[in-house]
Design brief:
The strands form two sheets. The protein has a five-stranded parallel β-sheet with strand order 2-3-1-4-8, with helices on both faces. The protein has about 220 residues and is α/β, with parallel strands linked by helices. The protein contains nine helices and eight strands. A hairpin with a 5-residue loop joins strand 5 and strand 6. Helix 4 runs parallel beside helix 5. Bound molecules: BIS(adenosine)-5'-pentaphosphate. The site of BIS(adenosine)-5'-pentaphosphate (AP5) has 35 residues, from helix 1, helix 2, helix 3, strand 6 and helix 9.
């Protein structure tokens, strides 16, 4: 099964992708996490994208398309993947279609997580993440089971993201409205898009996504 989790910054894509990965044996392909790993390593790609990401702008399409194309060709993706953060522009959606077609693969579901902007601001304002595996936590809504320790990988490197500052968040919302929302009609027309209520609590959102996948 191959699926996309779509939604604005802070909608809960990463939180739900981690749950689906564990429940269904799918591979989470989180482009934000991949880019943050490049930044942390200080490699040429990381140096190129660091400032773009911190300001809240989108990284150029060609970088992301190449990254995803090489990743979905790896053996662990053969039994299915969850795209979290890709595609984010119409050219990325078109490139994804072409790469899946070339491999004889298809998208089974595109799940749109709808959340009010005020709730997104609240979620991003209280978010911290695992610096090792990318798992997201929240100061009020989603604390780790053991204080200071990632539930998923056990790392104690819990960090606040530079792009969760209010000025970057505003830029990320604008990028979503102007560059990512235009891909929604593309998936609606192809019949794979389902909207869910991302305002619900984390467990209820998981139940809604599971109901979509069970169809
Ligand atoms: P990326 O890392 O993909 O960021 P994003 O899309 O802005 O999404 P987030 O990770 O902020 O949010 P999320 O939806 O995963 O929410 P989360 O589960 O963490 O991208 C970062 C940057 O990389 C981009 O700005 C861009 O520069 C670059 N980039 C990445 N992909 C790109 C692409 N394809 N093209 C170009 N550039 C690209 O949840 C948020 C918080 O809410 C957490 O604290 C969580 O605990 C909490 N929470 C989750 N669900 C709930 C709930 N139901 N109720 C209450 N709290 C909840």
């Amino acid at each position: 099964m191959n699926l996309i989790l779509l939604g604005p910054p802070g909608a809960g894509k990463g939180t739900q992708a981690k749950r689906l990965e564990q429940a269904h044996g799918l591979v989470q392909l989180a482009t934000g996490d991949m880019l943050r790993a490049a930044v942390a390593s200080g490699n040429p790609l990381g140096q190129r994208v660091k400032g773009i990401m911190e300001a809240g702008h989108l990284v150029p399409d060609a970088v992301l398309i190449e990254m995803i194309e090489s990743r979905i060709g790896q053996p662990d993706c053969a039994s299915g993947f969850i795209l979290d953060g890709f595609p984010r522009t119409v050219p990325q959606a078109e490139a994804l279609d072409a790469m899946l077609k070339a491999r004889g693969q298809k998208l089974d579901h595109v799940v749109l997580m709808e959340v009010d902007e005020a709730a997104l601001v609240d979620r991003l304002g209280g978010r911290f993440s695992c610096g090792a595996c990318g798992a997201s936590y929240h100061e009020r809504y989603n604390r780790p089971k053991v204080e200071g320790v990632c539930d998923i990988c056990g790392s104690t490197n819990l960090i606040y993201r530079a792009d969760d500052r209010p000025e970057s968040v505003a830029t990320r919302f604008a990028a979503y409205r102007n560059q990512t929302a235009p891909i929604l009609p593309y998936y609606k027309d192809s019949g794979v898009l389902t909207s869910i209520d991302g305002m619900a609590d984390i467990d209820e959102v998981t139940r809604q996504i599971e109901a979509v996948l069970a169809r």
